[in-house]
Structures are given as C-alpha cells and as structure tokens.
Amino acid sequence: MKTIRVGLKTYKVERDAVKPPSLLLMLNELFPLTRLGSTRTYVWRTYRDGFELLMVCNYFRYAWDPARLAAFLKIIEEYFEAVSRDVTATASINYLDEGWRVLIISVSVQGTKLENWERRWIGEWRQLARVFRGCR
Fold first, then answer.
1. Which pTM was predicted?
2. Interval 7-61: pLDDT, tens
3. Where are the beta strands (DSSP E) in the chain?
4. Which helix (H) or strand (E) holds 28?
5. Please, which of 3, 7, 52, 94 could form a disulfide with 45 given CB 3.0 to 4.6 Å?
C-alpha cells in the first residue's frame, strides 16, 4: 500500500497504474487547454471481477462548468464500456479543491480484470513509441 496526499485528502492506494494513453489522448482532444498529460492514475482497489482507479487531474480548466464536468465523467465511463458489453463503469468526482486546480475522479469498473486493461495500455504505449520513432 502507498499513501498519497492530494489537497486536503489522503488516500491509501495499492500502486501506480499504467496511464491509459488512448483515454488521455481522447480527453485532451475534447478538452483542450487542460494538462491531462500531468494526470496521475492509481490503482485504488482491486476485486476478483473489477477494479477502482483514482485519476488525479491537475489543472482541469473546465472544473467550474458542471456541463463539461458531467461530459468528462460520461466519456470516461463510455471509454471502459465500449470495449465489452459485459463491463460496467462508473466515474464520479471524489475531490475537487477550492481553487478548482485539482480534480480527483474515482472510476469503478466491473466485469473485467485490471491486468487485461494494463496489458492493453502497455501495447498502446509501445505502438505510440513505434509511430514516433518512425517520425524522425
């Protein structure tokens, strides 16, 4: 277990998670001016048939807008559910600091194992590395 402190809250997390590149790229495209590259992802809890992640988003510039915040959460849920009909995902705001600089989203995913997702994300990072090596 690892303890992280964000703003006024302290969390006990299992470990750092692999960052989902496809999700971050999609969110960055839909929500420009946001530093999603500084998003940290942690494994909060794992279950036999599911997991919970904490996504710590620094400088999410749309936190003051309830409609955009709701759209942000919905996109995260749909990202996980689009892969399989057996997967259900729920994204919710866990913490938002007073200055709207730090947003913590908890993502609960049922019907799949975290290892499957992390293998997929590692493959995406490798594919991105090959693409960028080819651009030189």
1. 0.83
2. 788 999 999 998 888 888 887 777 776 666 678 899 999 998 899 999 988 877 7
3. 2-6, 9-13, 15-16, 40-47, 50-58, 88-96, 102-110
4. helix 21-30
5. 52
Within a domain: residue 18?
no
Instruction: Give the pLDDT confidence of 88-97 residue by residue, as tens digits.
Output: 999 999 998 8
Q: How many domains does the chain have?
A: 1
What sign has the CA pseudo-torsion 44, 55, 25, 87? positive
- The answer to whether the CB of 83 falls within 8 A of the CB of 76 is no
Report yes or no: 73 and 93 within 8 Å, Cβ to Cβ.
Answer: yes
66 domain residue, yes or no: yes
57 lies in some domain = yes
Taking alpha carbons only, the member of 26, 43, 40 closest to residue 77 is: 26
